[in-house]
Amino acid sequence: MGNPLQRRQFSVLAFVFQTIFTVLLGLFGRYDRSILPNSELNAEKSDSVDRDYPLFQDVHVMVVVGFGFLVAFVKRYGFSAISVNLLLSAFVMQYVILLRGFLSREFVTTGFFRISVNELILADLSCVSVLVSMGVLLGKLTPVQFLILAFFESSFAVVMEHILFAFLNVNDAGRSLIVHCFGAYFGLAVAKVCQTKHVMVHEENMQHSELFSMIGTLFLWIFFPSFNAATQMSDDARHRAIINTYLSIASCATTTFLASSLSDHLGRFNILHIQSSTLAGGVAIGSVANIVLFPHHAIIIGTLAALVSVAGHVFISPSILERRLSLYDTTGVHNLHGLPGLLAGVCSVFFVFFYDPVDLGSVIPQSHISLNATALHDPTFESSMSPQTVQALNQLAGIGVTLTFALVGGFISGWIMNSSSLNQMRTQPSYEDTNYYMHAEFSLFGKLHNACNEEEFMGSTKGTSKSLKQKTMEHQNPEEPQKLSKKEQNKLERKLKKAQQKLEVEGTIGGNAEAEESTEKAEVDVSEGKYGAYGVIQSTEKKDIKFVQIGEISEKLDGQQIWVRGRLHNSRSKGKSCFVVVRQQISTIQGTLFVGESVSKDFVKYVSKINLESIIDVCGVVKAMGDQRVQGCTQGDVELQIQQVWVVSASEERLPLQIEDASRPESDSTGLSVVNLDTKLDNRVLDLRTQTNQAIFKIQDGVCEIFRNALKKRGFLEYQSPHIIEAASEGGANVFEVTYFKQSAYLAQSPQLYKQMAIAGDFPRVYTIGPVFRAEDSNTHRHMTEFVGLDLEMAFNFHYHEVLQTIAGLMTEIFKFLQQNFQKEIETVAKQYPSEPFIFTEEPVILKYAEGVALLRANGIEQGDEEDLSTPNEKALGRFVREKYKTDFYVLDKFPLAVRPFYTMPDPNDERYSNSYDMFMRGEEILSGAQRVHDPKLLTERAKVHGIDLEKIRAYIDAFKYGCSPHAGGGIGLERVTMLFLGLGNIRLASMFPRDPKRLTP
């Protein structure tokens, strides 16, 4: 935490604030007259404490217990969240009592302000806005910054409340605008300024922490009616607020379970929805809890609140807050407080405008307690508008004022907290309890040395041995060791021994080997030189170490010493043992390390603290497992008995996603965490390390390999096509326009024109592999704006089927090659993305387009003779072909001419159709091809029909003026072949770094 001044920032700041609070309360604060001894008012107000204190207790429980546990769901950040919640509550209560007092009318007139239970209730309500903001900022701020946050936010909140109540006479019974909405957007504004890349991650939760958070939810759910009713002066208003709030949160809870189930494709409930969205009804009803006069209105508000909140979790947070605004809402505050708070504001406008003034009566004026006094401004004024219209406009203005104060105040506060003197988060995240808290762990010598843990007191640095006496003397005064006499040393040693014996008798540490060893003199590290870090490898030396690939380790190497290099996939340690899993692409092996004659405790401890995903070198002896098998490792028949471990490249401790979580199927039924696709793609470098992705891209490489080799075997020549062209190659508008010096150019939709020009240049068989660009705003599972095309073109003698048969045979050869050479990878992918095995026939199935249409109609699906196939009809036809012909791969020939590009040769026997074809896998197109028009006159006519500027394709047309062989070809989408062969379900999974209309990075 930096220098000594930084380490004491919190202590100094807390001392200053507490001193100021004490002095100001002493000078200006007074108890309300009704609670002073012998007060004449006591008799009149004897029942006020009986009425107000139970409400205060309810609100106080919500603040301290409900909100405390609600924010305790972050993994390894449990008691930190709860204790910071307590700190801010205590701080804000004192500060707000002062601030409200100074703004009260009594202070203006008498120089003093009065304190009663009402002031405590209002102070508690103000605490909530700060605690709401805290939910956004967990893990992003230090304790010092949280104090600064509380100071500024409370100041803005009280001033804003003064404006809303005293000048606009806004009705906000449950403080939905003033507390919930304000707190949420204030926190988001601060987060936008203060958060760093280091903490812009989705923090994980654990089962026990989710349970704690659910306890907080239950407390808030139970006491929410009291919260919304606490500020109401009249009994009838309180009564309405209690009933309306209960009805609202009841309908909200039911709707939340419904919406949560619908949002999951397996119908499961999302615990995050249950923890927060079930409370949204209490927030949404808050502004109108005192004026809703019909029960069904409260139920409708609760239902809408649940839908809005769940929609926020499912759509708004990931798509807008995180992806577009780079805002990471740690505990989902925007969906629990922000959106429902805005809904409450909208409801208040609606109800005060549409409710019958006769029914509404005098519900709104003076229905709340605020600022220890009545309003400072009479909101009634002469106007041609009706009273309900004026009040509705006031309510609408209240929403604007709230958002303005929240965003402007948040940005200002964030800017102040982000200053170098206060921002201690620049170099470390704050999700760990241990960043600012000492663990309450028992130490054998804790009674003698309170601040020294056992390791520091009795431990040793590497390669150094110090006696117990020397270590004891150093810890008595770390900066100036105090020299003890021999008598004093002996006396201290006797005390230590006596303490140990006493604990053993009590059974606290009896038989604990670690506690016994801690009393011995530190030993020399017998493993010195066998572990550590290489440092940055800058090619300064060569080492004669031969590494073995993990996938090649088997029982044949039993007893041999080997070296492996891989990533630390998993690690668990207990006592004197440590088990690690080392990963190398899709292969994993377990390594074991036990304290013994040649393995020190320091060695085991060092290995156990290496961060996951670090690259390590491991030297060890292979041990065959015999009949046993290591579960969860690909090399399960062996393990590695570790002798040396060296860190090659260390990973950061905090990972945006866990490799194991990213490897689980989305339909995982174990209840463990899974990672959604956007998060995977945002952190693609980590995601690519999963065994599934390693297998996917090995298979994709295999597709390119066999594509090249098979075409080479058939006499094809590989050529390179330009990707910046003068005119759209497909003749359409879906092209990316780029500036090419002083003229416009386009990214090629395909290498089509240049394949044909190569044929005209007497290269009879050509192919190319390269990027293809399509400016199609299609956000589907199978479209990308950039993909890899496997394109080929071939001259034929008399019929284009010569080419069709060549391509169909090529595809069959690809399928065979993949199944024969990548079976292990296919099985690896199927574990995460299960699908039916891909089947195909030796002789490809070729259907005419008309036959495909007939097959659809025979199964009750309408399809026009000259219409292109829609996506649903494509998939349906794929199912019917699979059922009838037992194949997932087939060819559809003779497509309608109207749906094909201008360079497609018309069918000479039927002008409605063309000499073109598509090829399909699992009912989805993977190749589009045709015989090309090689006659310049016919090509010119076809281009005119499609409205293409002939001058822009002049070079293309001229290429056929000097004679050109008849030819045909096609273009295959590499990613589609990969996706459909493996049954991945989304083409982005088959692209290492996908591009679509919404993704341009990484």
Automatic annotation (TrEMBL):
It catalyses: tRNA(Asp) + L-aspartate + ATP = L-aspartyl-tRNA(Asp) + AMP + diphosphate. It is a multi-pass membrane protein. Its EC number is 6.1.1.12. The keyword Cytoplasm applies. GO terms for molecular function: ammonium channel activity; aspartate-tRNA ligase activity; ATP binding; RNA binding. It comes from the Eukaryota. SUPFAM superfamilies: Ammonium transporter, Class II aaRS and biotin synthetases, Nucleic acid-binding proteins. Residues 458-491 are annotated as: Disordered. The keyword Aminoacyl-tRNA synthetase applies. The chain crosses the membrane at residues 12-31, 55-74, 81-100, 146-167, 173-191, 211-229, 241-259, 271-292, 298-316, 336-355, 396-417. One of its GO terms (biological process) is aspartyl-tRNA aminoacylation. Residues 471-491 have a biased composition (Basic and acidic residues). PROSITE patterns: AA_TRNA_LIGASE_II. One of its GO terms (cellular component) is aminoacyl-tRNA synthetase multienzyme complex. Pfam families: Ammonium_transp, tRNA-synt_2, tRNA_anti-codon. Keywords: Aminoacyl-tRNA synthetase, ATP-binding, Cytoplasm, Ligase, Membrane, Nucleotide-binding, Protein biosynthesis, Transmembrane, Transmembrane helix. Residues 697-1002 form the Aminoacyl-transfer RNA synthetases class-II family profile domain. It is found in: Cytoplasm; Membrane. Belongs to the class-II aminoacyl-tRNA synthetase family. Type 2 subfamily. This is Aspartate--tRNA ligase, cytoplasmic. It comes from Ditylenchus destructor. The lineage of its organism: Eukaryota, Metazoa, Ecdysozoa, Nematoda, Chromadorea.
